[in-house]
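$ ./design --mode recover --in tokens.txt
reading tokens...
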């Protein structure tokens, strides 16, 4: 069975192509596919750049109530004891606690990050467009002073115009979700 392929098309016309890894992070891949197929990633500006560390697509669940959920942290179980250290070329979901990980928020590590091993699951690899990550890392940014962590926002928006997934005829189910009782402070409140 061929692994799903995701294509992120940026506003400059460039593409970042990902090979998703359901063999390694099945529920996480199901989550990414679900969010992408519903169009929630489309026309979204990358929100956070930490040069030398990572590029976050979002840190506030894409401003969408539908993206405000966690997944159970099964990294150790899924990796069969071979937990991958996130590094450049990987794509990871975000960390919230030892038992819960982000359901929709993903990021690109820009170096090997030992501290994220077992906390942020690697669910995909970049197979085309790694040079775009190096370019985005170097764009001019400005600090968002309203956030409790370091948030460097691109001065000229870097927009994911579309995120499309080719599943090669395989139907991936909705992920197993955890709806948090208390929302993270950086997630928006909806009436």
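writing sequence...
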């Amino acid at each position: 069975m061929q692994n799903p392929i995701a294509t992120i098309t940026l506003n400059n016309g460039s593409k970042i192509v990902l090979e998703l890894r359901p063999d390694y992070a099945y529920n996480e891949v199901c989550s990414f596919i679900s969010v992408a197929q519903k169009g929630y990633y489309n026309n979204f500006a990358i929100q956070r750049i930490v040069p030398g560390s990572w590029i976050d697509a979002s840190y506030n669940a894409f401003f969408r109530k539908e993206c405000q959920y966690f997944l159970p942290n099964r990294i150790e179980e899924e990796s069969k004891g071979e937990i991958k250290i996130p590094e450049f070329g990987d794509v990871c979901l975000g960390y919230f606690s030892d038992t819960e990980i982000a359901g929709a928020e993903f990021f690109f590590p820009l170096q090997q990050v030992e501290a994220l091993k077992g906390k942020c699951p690697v669910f995909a690899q970049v197979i085309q467009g790694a040079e775009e990550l190096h370019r985005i890392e170097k764009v001019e940014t400005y600090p968002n002073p309203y956030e409790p962590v370091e948030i460097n926002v691109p001065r000229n928006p870097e927009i994911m115009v579309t995120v499309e997934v080719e599943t090669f005829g395989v139907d991936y189910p909705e992920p197993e979700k955890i709806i948090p009782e208390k929302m993270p402070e950086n997630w928006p409140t909806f009436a």
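exit 0
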